[in-house]
Inverse folding.
């Protein structure tokens, strides 16, 4: 495995590359051009500017998270083919700079969704939290909360410009059934696969988060069966997964270690995150320590190790600890602790394997 760390870019992240350099074993930065709107082409000079920043610290730029997919592609809108062409141009440009994995998602309207970005945990830290009863059919209450209570930060897809057009977006998606959304995803991937093979880029879809329908909108990548459907419908090594243990793990029925073992050779990018479930359907993000949550972090790491996983791995959201001022879920401290936990487990498994020989 190759350890990586998500970074929002110069001037857009409380964490510096110099900070990240001091976390043991991190060799890759997971990056993006965050000012780009879905559908825009990422130009060579813009990518080169990030590369120069990463080169200074000896970091690779193999993984992009995310190149976002335009709503016209998700809904088969009238400019779908134009935006697919733009996406392909972006992939070609990225490949010239050594990008190997592009993470993306196919969630309608919203990206990942939580009802509280600063939920207090018993130890005095805070974490991202999902309260089931707060997610109603109408998202306007949630939109209000996001606009007024998130201390200047927001979740992707919940930006104020986007929330202002919520009605129109919902109107467009109201004509897209779950089956049509699947077809639109396959259409997109089939158009991309020849270019991906030529450029050596894997398209690694991130599961829907949470892994069930919300606000009456369909969600596709939610469990083992849907992953199987995706990988068989477009059976190409470049049609790959970002396996997020926290996203899939929000549903207690998902056996993540089993899913990792089953699809290990199609996982290009691993997100490691722990989740604690409550009986009423709420869930909280927690530390990476296995015993603090319910997804089976140690069994997940063991599944990757047994599968000879040589893709990219990163700690996913962390808690807010030690009064860090940072983007919700994306501080330095708890993610660094998560990395050391994964490093420790991985090195121990290496040692145990060595002892068997
Ligand atoms: Mn994730």
């Amino acid at each position: 495995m190759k350890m990586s760390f998500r970074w929002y870019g110069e001037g857009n992240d409380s964490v510096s590359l110099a900070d990240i350099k001091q976390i043991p074993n991190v060799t890759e930065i997971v990056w993006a051009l965050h000012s780009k709107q879905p559908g825009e082409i990422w130009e060579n000079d813009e990518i080169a500017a990030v590369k120069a920043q990463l080169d200074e610290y000896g970091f690779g730029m193999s993984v992009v998270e995310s190149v976002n997919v335009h709503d016209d592609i998700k809904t088969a809108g009238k400019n779908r083919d134009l935006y697919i062409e733009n996406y392909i141009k972006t992939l070609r440009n990225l490949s010239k700079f050594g990008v190997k994995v592009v993470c993306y998602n196919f969630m309608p309207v919203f990206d990942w969704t939580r009802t509280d970005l600063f939920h207090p945990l018993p130890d005095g830290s805070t974490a991202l939290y999902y309260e089931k009863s707060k997610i109603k059919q109408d998202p306007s209450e949630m939109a209000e909360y996001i606009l007024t209570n998130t201390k200047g930060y927001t979740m992707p897809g919940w930006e104020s410009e986007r929330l202002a057009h919520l009605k129109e977006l919902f109107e467009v998606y109201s004509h897209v059934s779950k089956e049509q959304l699947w077809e639109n995803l396959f259409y997109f991937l089939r158009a991309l696969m020849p270019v991906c093979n030529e450029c050596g880029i894997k398209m690694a879809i991130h599961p829907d988060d949470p892994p069930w329908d919300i606000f009456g909108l369909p969600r596709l990548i939610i469990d083992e069966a849907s992953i199987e459907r995706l990988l068989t419908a477009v059976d190409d090594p470049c049609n790959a997964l970002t396996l997020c243990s926290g996203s899939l793990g929000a549903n207690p029925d998902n056996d993540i270690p089993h899913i990792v073992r089953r699809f290990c050779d199609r996982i290009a990018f691993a997100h490691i995150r722990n989740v604690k479930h409550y009986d009423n359907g709420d869930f909280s993000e927690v530390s990476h320590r296995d015993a603090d949550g319910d997804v089976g972090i140690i069994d997940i790491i063991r599944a990757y190790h047994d599968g000879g996983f040589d893709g990219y791995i990163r700690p996913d959201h962390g808690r807010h600890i030690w009064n860090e001022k940072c983007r919700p879920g994306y501080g330095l401290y708890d993610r660094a602790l998560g990395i050391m936990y994964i490093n420790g487990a991985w090195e121990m498994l290496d040692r145990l394997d060595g002892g068997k020989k």
Observations:
- The domain at 2-356 is CATH 3.20.20.150 (TIM Barrel).
